[in-house]
Predict the structure.
Amino acid sequence: MQIDKNPNLISTNIVQSRNSKMDLISKGWFSEVQDELWPGQSFSLKVKEVLHKEKSEFQDIQVVETETYGRCLILDGIIQCTTRDEFSYQEMISFLPLCCHSNPQKVLIVGGGDGGVAREVVKHPLVKEVHQVEIDDRVVQVSKKYLPSMACGFDSEKLVLTIGDGFEYMKNHKNEFDVIITDSSDPVGPAVSLFHESYFGLLKQALKEGGVVCSQAGSFWLDFDYVKKTMKGCALHFPKVGYAVTSVPSYPCGHIGFIIGSLDASRKLEKPAKRFEKSESDALNLKYYSSDVHEAAFTLPRWVEKHFYE
């Protein structure tokens, strides 16, 4: 659905609905208000154009052109990515787990409807086969139209895309994957079950021996206890668990973390099994991830390290 592209008319052209998360643009500014996840704070972006909005079967979908962050995908009122800084998130959630595995030939992506994670995963020279399961086909189609720099990941010959439920998919694919990456939205709405302890049990069943998982895990600045709880849930199924961070300016606090679990208890997660020389990183068009950044990502502030690991 298209609406008037005049930013001065944005707020009056949006149908106001008590249940909608698409009415958060006022006087040309989008504000990310989410009292359940980050109460008492908001991040705002100046909007040049509203390119698209719709309500799919699962969520509100909106794409806006911003003044300084490029195009922005918003699901249920929460920023998922902007073309200015998305590479930091996409590269780290992909290459951290891939490089924690000595031979990641077969990879599963759960979620990731914008295509950015697929774009990164297929770059890895050892990856031969990538399967992706995304529940909302409308996110895929909207991303192909408005976010082609990310959705180009769907064009790879290595990739097989399935539209469906990730839980059901993994129940039917056991002991198949070397690495599973869960690129979910935040733990509200359709993604909430992807943060539960039982989900990590399902991930474990779908992995081969020595497999690695990586899930978006939020920020310790915003919900320390929730991150710790999620890590404990992962640790019930994986003998080696770590938390790594990256910087994404358009996310709350400009920061987000990833929980990584390995079925290999001897694996040192902070030491990449595959190291890339600078020339290799440049050839792969890696803008954020490097082997040095990989190691640094697991180095946490003392107050966090103490409560997560001791």
In short: Residues 1-19 have pLDDT under 50 and may be disordered. The radius of gyration is 19 Å. The longest helix spans residues 86-98. The CA atoms of residues 141 and 236 lie 37 Å apart.
